[in-house]
Design brief:
The protein is an alpha/beta fold. Helices cover 38% and strands 19% of the residues. The protein folds into two domains: 276 residues, 3-Layer(aba) Sandwich (Rossmann fold); 185 residues, Glycogen Phosphorylase B (Rossmann fold), CATH 3.40.50.2000. The structure holds adenosine-5'-diphosphate (ADP) and alpha-D-glucopyranose.
Length: 493
């Protein structure tokens, strides 16, 4: 099966969140399942300067305002997954982030930058750019790649079907309606039944309307996005796709996230030799200037600091966490108000609350290894990866029952739907009292060392790898392939 994976960020080269982790790991798992897979990535400096053995495939352009666009074929460093990279210096070679400049403002030409990504994906899939390869399935991730589905729909020559994965409906890729002509799509694509969304042009809608299949990153989120509470105004569009929408739960890269081999840790450990975790905790307490109390329950949080993540709840219950003898370590960046609130919290509780406002991959590993519990109290969470990293590191998750958190964490008091015992603590309402109750129960369990050790062991024994999700994606691609063949056969008849 020839599969083109299209996305804007990829671990370890460029990462703003979990999307990069997925694009770093899923393609490798699909290759292991036998897919003839290639990535398509924008030539951002972090990507183009890092890929190996880059060779020119063809020259394109001028397109999307860029005079010179070259398609390169290369290999990803570390994984050696084959990748196409779009070298368009005018659009991609600049400092700042993939979507925003250094000051957090969206790049003014994001329409062109990600329009190009989608357009190249469709051209490549249809065999128009590389004489040696075309795709049977284009798998587009989030709004950045979503236009590929509209371009494939507009010029359906060739074999390619499309899958669009929604990682987060909160980021939709909205642009002024007047700019649609820049996309080179006919005017019928600007109607409310296509890309138009309340007077704007929506890249997200291109994926939702025109992909052959839509997936979200957890089964629960797939159900949630069809409701007004979680659908961000797109619930009607999503409901309209009926059974074309499904959820495939993310996995994690169990080689990158493995406490037994993690070079970021001062001490490695495993389910059978868990002693090193106590040393990781002591190191974390030291790093953040917390009191060296081995028995104080240490809560950890690694997150974008945005309203999605429910962090105001954590701030509300902080005094009670301290009163119950707990400690808290936070690592994150994001909204100025949340950053300031956590800074103030750290100043107010020296020795008990540590805060690092920044992005640090190694630090995230150390934090997740050193904490006893990982907090993920999100208001919505398409999948969430840190609770799974927590499970793998014996760091018990405390989460809200929402999205992928509901699919991966089962309360110790309830167990999972198959009757297996729980692996964490789950609360329902986005209210401080509900979070406080979950933390109180977790601290109670923590003070029963045997029960706690069993709880940690259960999480560490779980299979969270990409093996199963990769099989599920392969099955989806195969189904699409057979449908296309069937359609062709019918056309011939
Ligand atoms: P989201 O994609 O919504 O941000 P996920 O839980 O899916 O949430 O993924 C977040 C990813 O980003 C995880 O790999 C997490 O470790 C990482 N991360 C978030 N904030 C930071 C930070 N400040 N420093 C390092 N890694 C971070
Ligand atoms: C998004 C979501 C997160 C998910 C990640 C990877 O950023 O917010 O819940 O885990 O994508 O799919």
């Amino acid at each position: 099966m020839k599969v083109l994976q299209v996305g804007a960020e990829i671990y370890p080269l460029i990462k703003t969140g979990g999307l990069a982790d997925v694009l770093g790991a899923l393609p490798q798992a699909l290759c292991q399942q036998g897919a003839d897979l290639r990535l398509l990535l924008p030539g951002l400096p972090g990507i183009i300067d890092a890929v190996l053995h880059a060779k020119r495939v063809c020259q394109i352009g001028p397109v999307f305002g860029a005079a010179s666009v070259t398609l390169l074929r290369a290999q990803m460093p570390y994984s050696h997954v084959p990748a196409y990279v779009i070298d368009a210096p005018f659009l991609y070679r600049r400092g700042g982030g993939p979507y925003q400049d250094r000051h957090g403002a969206e790049w003014a030409d994001n329409l062109q930058r990600f329009g190009l990504l989608g357009w190249v994906a469709a051209q490549l899939a249809q065999g128009r750019l590389d004489p040696d390869w075309h795709a049977e399935v284009v798998h587009a991730h989030d709004w950045h790649a979503a236009l590929s589905c509209a371009y494939l729909h507009a010029h359906p020559a060739g074999e390619a079907s499309s899958v669009f994965t929604v990682h987060n409906l909160a980021f939709q890729g909205l642009f002024p309606q007047g700019d649609w002509a820049l996309l080179g799509l006919s005017s019928r694509y600007m109607s409310p039944s296509a890309l138009e969304f309340h007077g704007q042009l929506s890249f997200m809608k291109a994926g939702l309307k025109f992909a052959d299949r839509i997936t979200t990153v957890s089964p629960t989120y797939a159900r949630e996005v069809a409701t007004a509470e979680f659908g961000m105004g797109l619930e009607g569009v999503i409901r309209g796709r009926g059974a074309d929408v499904s959820g495939i739960l993310n996995g994690i890269d169990t080689r990158v996230w493995d406490p037994a081999s993690d070079s970021a840790l001062s001490q490695r450990y495993s389910a059978s030799q868990p002693q090193g975790k106590a040393l990781c905790k002591a190191a974390l307490q030291k790093q953040f200037g917390l009191l060296a109390e081995p028995d104080a329950p240490l809560l950890g949080l690694v997150s974008r600091l945005t309203s999605q993540k429910g962090l105001d709840l954590v701030l509300s219950v902080l005094p009670e966490i301290i009163r119950m003898g707990g400690q808290l370590v936070v690592q994150g960046t994001g909204e100025a108000a949340l950053e300031a609130a956590f800074r103030i919290a750290a100043d107010a509780h020296p020795g008990r609350v540590g805060v690092l406002l920044g992005y640090d991959e190694t630090g995230a590993h150390r934090l997740i290894a050193g904490a006893d519990m990982i907090l993920v109290p999100s208001r919505f969470e398409p999948c969430g990866l840190t609770q799974m990293y927590g499970l793998r590191y014996g760091t018990v998750p405390i989460v809200r029952r929402v999205g992928g958190l509901a699919d991966t964490v089962h309360d110790v008091g309830q167990g999972d739907s198959a009757g297996a015992p729980g692996n964490g603590f789950v609360f329902d309402t986005a209210q401080p009292e509900a979070l406080r109750d979950a933390i109180t129960r977790a601290f109670g369990q923590y003070r029963q060392p045997q029960a706690w050790a069993q709880l940690m062991q259960r999480g560490m024994a779980e299979n969270l790898s990409w093996d199963l999700p990769a099989l599920q994606y392969m099955a989806l691609y195969e189904r699409l392939g057979s449908e296309r063949l069937e359609m062709k056969r019918r056309d011939v008849d």
